[in-house]
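Fold sample X.
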Amino acid sequence: MIEFSAPLRLRMDEGALLSNWRWLKRQGGGAACGAAIKADGYGLGAAEVMRRLLDAGCRDFFVSNWAEAAVLESLVTEEVSLSVLHGVREEDLAVALASRARPVLCTEWQIARWKQSGGGPCDVMVDTGMNRLGLDWRGDVPARVAGLEVATLLSHLASADEDGPLTPRQLERFSALQGQVKAARYSLANSAGICMGSDYAFDMTRPGIALYGGVPRREAAGNIRQVVFPETQVLQRRRVRAGDTIGYNATYLAAKDMEIAVLNLGYADGYLRGFSGRGSMSAGGRHLPVVGRISMDLTAVDVGGLPDISEGDWLEVDYKLVDAAAASGLSQYELLTGLGARFDRIWR
């Protein structure tokens, strides 16, 4: 078989991933610390993330739908739980009943469907102010879940990444439900909620973005390490004459003669046009600014002053999530989950 490598790669730091999970776990006091691995582990590969976190002691995992759960079924044991956040549609029922994963029931229809099918333990989502998925906290939640074996009662914080009145209000509402609804465990905090202190931890926390290098609140700064390091290969080095333009729509005008490197990276890979004129690559400790408009498959950077960079060399994309979000206008979540399938994914 002919070996093949792509001109794009994601280098992923296992030590940073585990360090992030351990820090997040400590913030929850004695609470269990799970992991959201939906969207294929936020783009890193759900199975690879799950295996590494299992080795570190994580035992609770969350995906969005049953297609994601099916990929991870072999890793679920009596000691390891996998929950499907979007519940169970009629189309999912046969798969869900045969699976070792649990549905997170979100609607009265889902609850009725699960009861009628004779389903076993489940999780239940209650909406305490986000108005997304879940039973309305103002309804008679105990009556609605009567007859279910609830493994975990969950809610989700809407805006814990900023200071405001809604988050403590959600905490108050969920705390009241804890005394009304019988469940084996209770879970409220996402990554940002974990940073707000142990009052939000309950029995289990559910970090997502912070596991993968995102900084959800100021309290996490300096404690969360970068996990994902995209790299791209130089396709061509070329000289641009003063007065010439670079890229589509001639948005960059060379004020003087300059040297650029054209890279095998573009918006089809998740390096979106918001980085045009704002993003950068790194080589030998030097930051190389993006020049011109990013296209589907190609990006140009200024390599003046670095004569050794040539065709075939690799450059690191400046992709520390907080900084990249500020440069591009994208959220840290979009930056991670948008990284495309054309990257070779390499753990170190």
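Fold sample Y, listed below.
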Amino acid sequence: MGAEGFNTGGFRDWHVHLELMRPEPSPVTRVLDLGSNVERLRGIADGLRGVTVSYAGAFITAPGGYPSDRSWAGPGSVIEVDGAAAAREAALSMREAGASVFKVAMNSVAGPAASSDVVRAVVAAAAGLPVVAHAEGPGEAQRARECGATMLAHTPFTERLDDAEIAAQAEHVVWISTLDIHGWGTPDDEFGIAVDNLRRFHRAGGVVRYGTDMGNGPTVAGFNTREIAALAECGLSRAEILATLTPAAPAQGGPVVFVPGSPERPDVAAAVLVDTAAH
């Protein structure tokens, strides 16, 4: 007799960079690339087996803004825009190229951040598709929300958000976790800030998605149990951790993952994930 279990739509990593690192075989069968040259990305995706790729295409940023000055940001992976009209054109070009989300860089720590007019123009051009903001620096997470961004690429880690902002974020914005990038197993100060923010965001009813920023430093090329352990540290139950990984149903097509346990008891199924992370 086989083990009890159920099929899910495949574990999803909501933040990867396939130009920087290729995934290894793992329970992660769906990935969202949040910043790459579309043509190169398509070639990479065609070469992957058992992994479904969706993408934002290029970062949309301010002239000279993050990550235009980074060595890892290859040609065509960044579009610098100087106003709302150029931002709309950039977003529409990414949509025509097959993007299912859009990525705006609001990183005031690393240089000029996309202006509010630019972010609002991308949101308008997205026409209901998610707009993911890299919000880094004082006030950037709040500004992203106020401009209509619907996802944060990272749990805010440069400042502790106050409880009122946490509540507003929980109502309007989905957070991609990416906790493990802060120390890669040796937690740093930014890890502590992010965990505090995410713990309160989750308590306020906010929606969390598992994401690792794969390719950013010595990240794991597959399923990251340290990220799972960090989510547990933020107070997510086993069932809630499983939900961050499996928001897609098998009926939507694509690869399927078999999860041990009962679909009526997702806490039992998710126990294997948390227990693995603890060792």
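Sample Y note: The first strand starts at residue 5 and ends at 8.
Also: DSSP finds nine helices and twelve strands in the chain.
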